[in-house]
Amino acid sequence: MYPFVIPPKHDAALPGPQPVSPWILVVSVALVLMSGLIYLRIGLAGPGFDELFGGLGDRLPLVTRVALLLDGYAGVLTLVSFLPCVALFRHRRAFPGDINRCFTWVIGGFGLALTVLFIWITAMYLPLESLGDPVS
Q1: What is the pLDDT of residue 2?
Q2: Cys bridge to 113: 23, 35, 68, 73, which one at CB 3.0-4.6 A?
Q3: Could you give the angle at the alpha carbon of 106 between the alpha carbons of 100 and 111, nearest 5°?
């Protein structure tokens, strides 16, 4: 019936907007920078591995082929870590739940970067192990 919803009145017992703690901002920036460096390194190393493994074709493990196809999307993954940190800086005064949610996303983005790095390293070493088998 009404095109808008009337917001509930603020309860005085609940805490209002608070400033973001400086340590949260510093840790967020550090984690985002490390995530960005991980993705940058993966993006720069991809063409070299593509050239190295280019002649192997279908003999490459599936994980390696997928990793080589997706190395160009490292910049998109950087945004996953970068956007929550921007939200923290943009809303320096927010409700504690919003601050915690953004900080959790920053930590999750760093966890994603570490997971991608682990998968990338594994994917790039699998063909080297399989190439060493015929030599042994």
Answers
A1: 52
A2: 35
A3: 125
